[in-house]
Amino acid sequence: MKTIRRISQIAFFGLFLYLIAVTVYPLGSRIPVDLFLRLDPLVAGASMLAGRVIIPGMLISLAVVGITLLLGRVFCGWICPLGTTLDAADVLLFRKKKRQDTIQLHRWKYYLLAGLGVTALFSTSAVYLLDPISLITRTVTLAFVAPVQLALRYVAESSYAWSDSSFRPLASVGEWLSGILWSHAFISDPQIYYRQGLLVLMIFVGIVALNSLSRRFWCRSLCPLGALLGLLSYAPILKRFVGPECNDCAKCVTDCKVGAIPADPRLTRSAECVECFNCVAICPEEAISYRFGLPPRKRRDTSLNLYRRRLLLGAVAGVGFAALVRTDPGRKRAIDGALPVKLSSPVLIRAPGAVPEDEFVGRCTRCAECMKVCPTTGLQPALHEAGIEGFWTPILVPRIGYCTEMCNLCGEVCPTDSIQPFEIEEKKHIFIGLAVIDRSQCIAWYADRTCLVCDEYCSYKALEWKEVDGMQRPFINEKKCVGCGICEGVCPIQPVAAIRVFSHGDKRHMTREEQKEWAEQELE
Q1: What are the residues whose beta carbons fall under 8 Å from the beta carbon of 131, sequence distance 6 or more?
Q2: 3-state DSSP assignment of residue 302
Q3: Which DSSP state fits 329?
Q4: How confident is the model at residue 300 (pLDDT cuts 50, 70, 90)?
Q5: What are the CA-CA distances from residue 351 to residues 190, 411, 430 (Å)?
Q6: Mind listing the pLDDT tens digit for each residue in 77-97?
């Protein structure tokens, strides 16, 4: 069973990497590329609680809930890609290091879960910070995909540079793998660029480094998904049995990677056990087995023994976080009945199909799937643009990449429907921003010279020309400009474009039908 579990871990981790790799334009995978996120009951529960909605695509997480109720935390031990990563790191980096048991910290994750649950209750979910599936998906996308693609391109280009034809197959393989990682049909520079990759990598390295304290320290002490599954696996039907052959050698106690076996090897903390079967493999007397049914009550220890005061403290911390983000200057505020806007940044441009801002920041799990699939790499993680509550949420940065007219994949890959699916034909009536011309920098305005770059590239023909002072000057038709950012991206003025997209054109407060009617009013 231990060997089968390792095969399962490798297979699911390979599937996880494959789904990230094929999250490119055009989207051709028959398996949902956000499968692991959909299976995550913590992401599902927090997103639905924060958004006060039922998300049909996330209901598949009920399968994990059902399996956990019956078999225990098999998701943690057999499927979770972050758990597999930590197991591999333990073998490669910390195998010979003697580490003391830190099981006394196993309650921390339950207190963290209480705090994160409260944030979702107040629609300011902070689950994305610690959820393992969101965390590792974000890490691989933002910190690893771009450097790996750069390395593959370097291999391909270097191989072609050699006159020896024997290097050509290596170049072909490098190009092929680079093409799998990234589709560059809409941009001249095929290299991927992501902001904050170093910050995300440092967090991930810190999680791996915690293994120096104990095996799977993250899973033992900090993982909120593990805490949720632990609560669900309080009394599973698949149980660890210890027979009378046990000689109290305690090898299973020291070998248990998650500290699920207390000092008495005959007892089991069911909420901590990840069904790894290490204890079965290491037992010299073959006294340990896993069976369906319930062992005698005196031989099992399923009590979590959580401290009420610390649970309350975790909940209070969650309330404090919610209060902090709601009083942050980055919060939206309506002025004289106008559309509420973010005070912290006028360039908070969301992807087309994004739900209204308050709901968006609560439902978005910051997985970076939309950023990975964006064919122009225009979607980037927010830092300060959306305030504290919008940290790492996707925003459009036109200077890096625009929202191309022929793509709707961000809505297809979003697991929480914070970016809702839409048809390409609908994009001309989904307003995410409004372009504004800075006449002090625009060549056609301040220099009295002809410049047609923005007009030539505009996908929606939103540029209009009028004669002013005997010269043709560009103007923006707000009924046609959807804020895609292509004009800002191609503007020759550097470093700040003479035409920029701002968030005051965002009309997410209106339904798509209302946006369409608004756009067609003047056209009639």
Answers
A1: 40, 42, 43, 46, 224, 225, 365
A2: coil
A3: T
A4: very low
A5: 21, 9, 10
A6: 999 999 999 999 988 888 766
pLDDT band with cut points at 50, 70 and 90 for residue 302: very low
Which pair of structure tokens corresponds to residue 185? 């049909």
Segment (H or E) for 136: helix 132-139
Q: Is 225 helix (H, G, I), strand (E, B) or coil?
A: helix
CA-CA distance, 473 to 438, in Å (whole number)? Answer: 12
465-522: pLDDT as tens digits: 999 988 899 999 999 999 999 999 999 998 899 999 998 889 988 999 999 999 888 6
The DSSP code sequence of 98-128 is -----GGGTTHHHHHHHHHHHHHHTT---GG
Sign for the pseudo-dihedral over CA of 16, 21, 22, 25: positive
Cβ 342 vs Cβ 348: under 8 Å: yes
pLDDT tens digit sequence for 280-295: 988 998 899 888 876 5
459: Cβ–Cβ under 8 A, 6 or more apart, which residues?
A: 404, 405, 484, 486
Taking the C-alpha atoms of residue 473 and residue 467, their distance in angstroms, rounded to an integer, is: 6
Left if phi > 0, otherwise alpha if psi is -120 to 50, otherwise beta: which for 7?
alpha
Residue type, 26: P
- Residue 509 amino acid letter: H
Before 190, cis peptide (omega within 30)?
A: no
Two tokens, residue 523: 């056209």
What whole-number distance in Å separates Cα of residue 4 and Cα of residue 181?
A: 30
pLDDT tens digits, one per residue of 232-256: 988 788 888 898 889 888 888 888 8
Nearest to 421 by CA among 345, 465, 370, 464: 370
Identify the residue whose tokens are 């993982």: 223
- How many CB atoms lie under 10 A from the CB of residue 449? 10
Confidence check: pLDDT of 331 > 80? no
User: CA nearest 269: which of 309, 320, 307, 235?
Assistant: 235
State the Cα–Cα distance between residues 286 and 279, nearest whole angstrom. 9
Average pLDDT over residues 217-223: 92
Residue 248 three-state SS: coil
Please give the average per-residue pLDDT across 135-159, as a whole number: 85
Q: Name residue, tokens 């871990």.
A: 9
For 92-122, letters b (16+ CB in 10 Å) and e give: eebeeeeeebbbeebbbbbbbbbbbbbbbbb
Please report which helix (H) or strand (E) contains residue 394, including its range.
strand 394-396
Q: Are the beta carbons of 99 and 212 closer than 8 angstroms?
A: yes
**Residue at 184: amino acid letter:** H
Contact 51/122 with Cβ under 8 angstroms? Answer: no
Output Rg (C-alpha) for the chain, integer angstroms: 27
Q: Whole-angstrom Cα distance, residue 405 to residue 185?
A: 13
Closest alpha carbon to 223 in 376, 108, 67: 108
